[in-house]
């Protein structure tokens, strides 16, 4: 986001001609420029645990099992805003260029919230052929319906967690890889598939990768190429304050429903409506947006 310049802008020659012609002919105020800056800072930290084991069944066969725990995040959000305008005030004798800036230098700090991502279990197997290469296969299961916002007794998070549990589902993913060794050179190829948590076929992710490696004494040089495709649908224009939240997964929550409801922003960072409904915190709305980037 670009902050508008503080120096007085020079109007183009065409604009100048217009204002020159208006002097003595018309009187009024003409806004030529509006600059708005909205800065959002998202700060968070989290922790998770990963456990795994590999068994050498035979000289060729390897089996593995991995558990990735949920990641528990604590998220803090801050916002600041800035507004500037440039206008022309035309009277009978002159045209004045006036710049005004509204910069309260206030940082809005919203209440922290917590996010728990889903855990994942992965089973793997590999066939290792000495001095020839290997074949590997990974199969993972992740239950997206277990995503949770906290505090869980918050009325808005209760509703959102219910929507997630009813909309998202368990999804699988698998990867197949192969490597061929030839002297100091390694040739690699792989394929991956990730199922959509909504169970929609055209929103699954598929991709492949190619790789090349070269061994120099105790070092290696590796090159890789990866391509994948993911189908999704986005609206041309978003609706509501922050658009369709969880749009990628088809979950949407509005700050208010119904026709012609007036919204206003309260001092505590909430959105209320004239129908007397429960206020929806800006923090809650931002929390919904967070899921887009998981």
Q: What this model shows, in words?
A:
The protein is mainly β and 294 residues long. Helices cover 11% and strands 50% of the residues. An eight-stranded antiparallel sheet has the order 2-3-8-9-11-12-13-14, with no helix packed on it. Strands 1, 4, 5, 6, 7 and 10 form a six-stranded antiparallel sheet that branches. The longest helix is centred in the middle third of the chain and has 13 residues, at 155-167.
Strand order of the largest sheet: 2-3-8-9-11-12-13-14
Q: What's the story with the biggest beta sheet?
A: 8 strands, antiparallel
**Strand percentage:** over 45%
Let me know the number of strands.
Answer: 17
Rg (C-alpha, Å):
28 Å
* Straight-line distance between termini: 24 Å
Output the helix-strand order. Answer: HEEEEEEEEEEHEEEEEEEH
Average pLDDT, to the nearest integer? 75
Number of helices: 3
Shape: elongated
Helical amount: 10-25%
What structural category characterises the helix and strand content? mainly beta
Unreliable spans: 1-24, 237-288
Task: Jot down its keywords.
mainly beta; 294 residues; eight-stranded antiparallel beta sheet; six-stranded antiparallel beta sheet; 3 helices
Give the arrangement of secondary structure elements.
Elements lengths: L12 H10 L5 E20 L2 E7 L4 E8 L3 E19 L4 E8 L5 E2 L3 E4 L3 E10 L3 E11 L4 E3 L4 H13 L2 E13 L2 E10 L10 E12 L2 E12 L32 E3 L4 E4 L6 E2 H9 L4
Antiparallel strand pairs: 1-4, 2-3, 3-8, 4-5, 4-6, 4-7, 7-10, 8-9, 9-11, 11-12, 12-13, 13-14, 15-16, 16-17
Give a quick rundown of the structure.
With 294 residues, the protein is mainly β.
